[in-house]
Write a structure and sequence with these properties.
Blueprint: E1 3-5, H1 6-22, H2 24-34, H3 39-56, H4 62-76, H5 81-96, E2 101-103, H6 104-122, H7 132-141, H8 146-158, H9 183-199
Antiparallel strand pairs: 1-2
The protein binds adenosine-5'-diphosphate and magnesium ion (2 copies).
Adenosine-5'-diphosphate is lined by residues 31, 35-36, 38-39, 42, 79-81, 84, 122-124, 130-132, 167-169, 182-185.
């Protein structure tokens, strides 16, 4: 049984920062096709703030790490993705409570709660061509393994290509949103891949 402490969550957030930094141009390019060409910039700014905040005042618990990260995303990212990802992490962190260590199964449950909060805030459901199309299957598959979660997120992000966007800026394009990967689903896949990477 793997137990995950604050250190693990800290490393996950740092790995998210590296991944969005590395892939920022691709995320912005995806957003230039069906949005306003800022998703990579938004994510990079948000996770740079997360990294800074964690280094200044490292929280002692897994829940504390996720809640601090979520707060940073909400306060530094102007776009839709900031409040949505911020809500994901804050709600998941709240679900972990003040436990010093958690299991993968507990993290899976917490992520499911976070994903439900994102759906409620944004009013989107599976198949609407949003970050949820990667996050919903990933949180579900995390009950099985980290690798299953990574694969589910990747598949979910790629499966947004043929979809018609029903939420967010991309929905303004109607049929013209078809044929492009959703930027938020792509970034969600990066965050879950970072989790699997840190889990080894
Ligand atoms: P903005 O659209 O404000 O410029 P970003 O470009 O940073 O914000 O993020 C866009 C992404 O946010 C989309 O690709 C989509 O995945 C996600 N998104 C937008 N609106 C919603 C929503 N209502 N529910 C879930 N996800 C959404
Ligand atoms: Mg955008
Ligand atoms: Mg924008």
């Amino acid at each position: 049984l793997t137990v995950l402490g604050a250190e693990f969550f800290h490393r996950w957030m740092i790995a998210c920062g590296s991944a969005v930094d590395r892939e920022a141009d691709r995320l912005t390019e995806l957003d230039s096709a069906i949005g306003d060409a800022d998703h990579g910039i938004n994510m990079r700014r948000g996770f740079a703030a997360v990294t800074d905040a964690l280094e200044k005042e490292p929280p002692a618990t897994p829940g504390g790490v996720l809640m601090l990260a979520g707060r940073q995303l909400i306060s530094t990212v102007g776009g839709a993705s900031g409040p949505l990802y911020g809500t994901l992490l804050r709600r998941a962190g709240k679900a972990l409570g003040d436990a010093g260590e958690v299991t993968r199964e507990q993290l899976a449950e917490a992520l499911n709660a976070g994903v439900a909060a994102v759906a409620q805030l944004g009013g989107a459901a599976a198949g609407d061509k949003t970050m949820l199309d990667a996050l919903l299957p990933a949180a579900e598959a995390l009950g099985e393994s980290f690798t299953a979660a990574r694969e589910a997120a990747e598949a979910g992000a790629l499966a947004t290509v043929p979809l018609l966007a029903r939420k967010g800026r991309a929905s303004y394009l109607g049929e013209r949103s078809v044929g492009h990967e959703d930027p938020g689903a792509a970034s969600s896949s990066l965050l879950i891949a970072a989790l699997a990477e840190v889990a080894g």
